[in-house]
Amino acid sequence: MKQFEWQKKDGTCLLTDGKTVLAKITAQDGAVDTFEKIEDGAWKWTRKLPAKTDTYHLGFVTASPAEYTVVPAVNYNGNGWGDSEEYVGDRFEGTPWTYEWHRVMIPACTYSETENGYAIAMMAELGDAPSCSIYKEEDGGERHELVWPEQAGPKMLGRHEWKEAYMGEMEPKDRFTAVIVAFPVDRKRHAVRKLLDFAWRYYAHPLPAPMQPEDMWRYSIAFIKSLWTLEKDGFVAFNRGLQWYKSSCFYAKRDQIKYEIGWVGQSASASNTLLYEYLRSGDKDAYEKAAACLDAWPKYTKISGIEGLVQIKFDGAPVDQTREIPIDACNLGQGAYQYFIASDLMEKCGTPRPEYVDYAMGMVNFVVDHQQPSGEFAKSWNKDGSVRQQNGTIGAFLIPAVLEAYKRTQDKKYLDSAIRAYDCYFKQFADNGFTTAGALDSYCIDKESSSPLLDAALALYKVTGDKKYVTCAEDVAWYISTWMMHYTEKFPAGTTLEEIGYDTLGITAVSTAHNAVDQYCLRDVRGFLALYELTGKKQWQERGMALWCAASQLISDGTLCIRGKVRPAGSQDEAVFQTRWGRPTLPPFNPSEWLVMWPCAFRMETLRETEDWSIFKRGVDEIENKIEK
Q: What's domain 213-618's architecture?
């Protein structure tokens, strides 16, 4: 570890390694700066002013230009990938962006890797409420700032819209603090893991399990069954979720864009959970509902083998707009994989369905036949099989299904396809420092697209035994961790999230366009726990269980009432607006009130693939090497 020190020279505080200057802090007349060492490479910086003030900027400038910058879950090196509304660059019309502390996954955190080979980050102390800003100075250095009072500007990102700038207020004070962390860059665009390790040990705390797994299972079975739907023409699927209808003052099934096989709707995964329940308890109703749904999709949605094109269509009458089925990497990948699993479960039930494998292989063969020479799959396709959108890490959702085809056929073309795809997507991630285009309702840098990279790395390790995939999985898990809340947010008094006691620690944000948090991290729980088993690094277990605990909040037991609305058993919000981002009809610091299928499906996948549920009963019992303040 480099030995850093703070030096004072000509009215400037310099952070150096003895030879190289990393950062410069300009002194202020009458102010006193102190640097309290937290651990090697980390300090609590306090500036005592000669008089109180109700507005202040506390910051430093890097001595070398930045090559890569991050505001965790908000801005990755200036964003700009894709076409969604987001914070682009470091300023708008000449004014630097300022972000509220709770929009960032480490309180008001800014991070930069500089040309002189160092990384440096600044963040806020818990209990404080500054905003943050990071931007390039005229001399080429990168300015990191904490800004009081809490504010956002020059405009503020909302859901598919820009809002007016926000300016808060505070009582005047004369003492301002920041936490600074510095270290050498060992891998460009991936050294941020050292900041994340520090932040976890500094801000995180033990977390109890919000609900016991046996109760989750029982309520979730009830919720899945409640979404089962038989259409007049015989088509069967699970509705995507429940929304509030003012006309009836009741949560009811969505009446538009109702069904999907493997994204929001999760019809295949939900069916498999019910099959598992039948094998577990003998619940015949669960079996009948699952079988009806699984039988319906191959019958009513056709995959044409003509020239290898996918044409998903309905037999008989013209397609109802509410029955349009998206053709995308996420739906095809999850759908194909779950149909492979459904075939196995049906065998155990004593009612074989070999046609399920044929259905899954049809999807797999389409994407393998249309794989790019680079190894990339497309993001989505039109009804005629032509590519709608090509780019994005989302294509990695197809890798586990392609690997499953290899395991069942032993045809090496599927293994080669999976490896080529993984090499392609991982190289993009390694070069860029981010992944892209996982969500179907935005096209930008995000977290969702990294989940299949984690799954696929661990699956490839199991198939090939090559330990490089464990290293790849760790790299992806660290990136996912940049989207993870490392602290418990204190919400404004009187807001819904404050009243219900929602804890943000461990929950993850969605994308650079969607700054809210959601339960998608449930997909990553098994991956993080697997990394702990493979590496012995306790923090992977802690983080994995924090993901689980955070995403297990607000599951209704049938009596949960939020904002005067009683929620059906097993239901849960898709997202939580922990910051000033959200839809115009719902104020900030509220749950989304869209009670969707997919968190339930992902949670049940984890439970049904984990024999020993004891870890889910414990929660996060300790933080190894916790930094005591």
A: Alpha/alpha barrel (1.50)
